[in-house]
Amino acid sequence: MLRWAVHLEGGPRRVNHAAVAVGHKVYSFGGYCSGEDYETLRQIDVHVFNAVSLRWIKLPPVWTNSRDHVREVPYMRYGHSAVLIDDTVYIWGGRNDTEGACNVLYAFDVNTHKWFTPKVSGMVPGARDGHSACVLAKSMFIFGGYEQLADCFSNDIHKLDTTNMTWTLISAKGTPARWRDFHSATIIGTKMYVFGGRADRFGPFHSNNEIYCNRIKVFDTETNSWLDSPPTPVLPEGRRSHSAFSYNGELYVFGGYNARLNRHFHDLWKFNPVSLSWRKIEPKGKGPCPRRRQCCCRVGDKIILFGGTSPSPEEGMGDEFDLMDHSDLYILDFSPSLKTLCKLAVIQYSLDQSCLPHDIRWELSAMTTNSTISRPIVSNQGTPLPHVTASACACRFRFRRCRAGRSGAAGAMGPRRERPGRGQGWGQGRGRATASTDSEEEAAAEQPLGRLEAVEEGSGDSDSSDDGGSVAGAGGKDQSDMSFEELLRVQSEARTRVSKKVPGGKKTAKPTKAAVKQQQGKKGPLEMSAKKPVPFLRQVIPVRKKVQRDPRFDDLSGEYKPEIFMKTYSFLDSIKKQEKEMVQKQLKKCRNMEQKEKLQRLLNRMTQQEQAQKKQQKLRERELTLKRQQRELAKQGKKPFFLKKSEQRKLELAEKYAELKRSGKLESFLNKKRKRNAIKDKRHLPSQKNL
């Protein structure tokens, strides 16, 4: 019984990003958001979602000291792919508005949160975006996408063996899938199931005649062949930028977009690989709105869906295409337990939660409280402080105090809520919460900038009211029975009363220059002065020089081999042949002399290119033949003999002579040669004036 169990807002607002599930966490990499600056080159951002605490955190950026280390961190991008193999996430492909597409392989260690670039070999795929990536054992399979160098769709399959970091272009048998991008490829067993995507009606090049295939294409990784699947009576609409995942040996497809229909989808379809049949699924609960370019990750029996973009409900709310980017998150539970169903009933009917255990109340609060993604906290030295995960921070508040003079006012940044500890409520200590004095409140409010105050679980300390009694919320509630929002409100009121309190008695003198440090007590922290000397030299932020990277000559992109390159793009020969025939037909029908000359020049150019290509191919075949002969001689024990350039030139002239004689153009060629030689000889003869 499928059910949409959780809906939260306030996560990372991302579109066309990539994500993987690692245990009970989901790592999200990159993506874009309308209105942000993507022309400035910066590091890719990493967000982590904890499926237990239902909270997002953003990992701090990597601080690099050298330019070589900067290359190990990918730049911000979209349209890329991310897969998990062991404890390493491999990021490949994608593009940026400044750098364009990329084909460098990046790796991210989920244990140390460190980036590195593995050294790869073999035939590296061309830079692209909108491709698909899936994992079988220790290998990653790349299919399709839009290649930047060839400026066309792709239907090649590349395989990366992570045991030796070698790329391989798979020579697939059978009828391949059409050239496409923004499709999905899912591994079930040993087969790869490709669905949807955007293709062109007339071939690999984009001509604004888009088609959206709604049939499944199956690739067998054991035999390296495309399998033919019979037609099915029920089919979903063709779409692109959707999400696909597998569960219990079946394929699920959600959402997407069809430009021909100008329609976004939010339907869920299931494909059975055994019966090769489709079935539409209707989960219970309120699901996501129609959208595309979202991410779906499987964590146990749950699917985490977040991000994406969809048509704006109100005019003027989206971008130039009236689209609205999402920061929400949905959880689809395939087998909700009785406990989950009971919690959903408590939330749906707004039942009283005071009699429930504290851990159940915490889970209900986590299911209904939206996330808040903020920048990492920076210390006084300018270095980022490490993030505190929700599971390791039991009932902890973190505050950043802003010291406005010596007035004791609280900081502008409010408290940031983390996960409470199981077994205890918010602010509940041993027995009953004790009251603190006004002096302790003032001392806590006057902490310097960047100082963090942590109220640990079970400490027995809590904020007090003005009269020094026990803390009570609105209506005289006990603190142990308050909700998290009520605790925040009471705490904010207590801080406000302390900051507005006018001290009586003698006026305190202003601190002198000598009083740089002041200790608030024997065990109190030292308070640093805000008067810091101005440095002699300005602190200039180093800006990395922009280095254009050409994938043809980059060490990280492998080596260029003409034979493999020509074999990969051999499909262009048939397209060139069709274009040549089309030009010949237009030349016969054309009556305009000016247009006819242009077509004739174009036809001559195409013919010359074809002849040059054939000539290069013959030279390459001759070189390969000579190499084979030398290898045979070496096997027989003879010493290999390599031809000099002059001898190679003689062989070329002999081949040219035989070809001219075969074609009957030998006499005309020799006559032209004689005329050229006569002209050269005439130049060296003495002129009549000198005689």
Describe this structure as you would to a colleague.
The protein has 691 residues and is α+β, with helices and mostly antiparallel strands. The chain has 4 domains: 10-296, Kelch-type beta propeller (Neuraminidase, 6 Propeller); 354-375 and 389-497, no CATH class; 570-629; 643-683. Helices cover 23% and strands 23% of the residues. The chain has 10 helices and 38 strands. The strands form 11 sheets. Strands 6, 7, 8, 9 and 10 form a 5-stranded antiparallel sheet that branches. It has a 5-stranded mixed sheet with strand order 11-18-17-14-13, with no helix packed on it. β6 and β7 form a beta hairpin. α7 packs antiparallel against α8. The model is unreliable at 315-320, 374-475 and 502-520 (pLDDT under 50).
Q: Figure out the total of helices.
A: 10
C-alpha geometry: elongated
CATH class of the largest domain: Mainly Beta
Number of strands: 38
Q: From the 3D coordinates, which CATH architecture of the largest domain would you assign?
A: 6 Propeller
Structural class, by secondary structure, is alpha+beta
Question: Would you identify the regions where 5 or more consecutive residues have pLDDT less than 50?
Answer: 315-320, 374-475, 502-520
CATH superfamily of the largest domain: Kelch-type beta propeller
The first-to-last residue Cα distance is 111 Å
> How confident overall, as mean pLDDT?
77
Q: Biggest sheet: strands, sense, closure?
A: 5 strands, antiparallel
The percentage of residues in β strands lies in: 15-25%
Q: And the CATH topology of the largest domain?
A: Neuraminidase
In total, how many domains does the architecture comprise? 4
- Helical fraction equals 10-25%
Radius of gyration: 35 Å
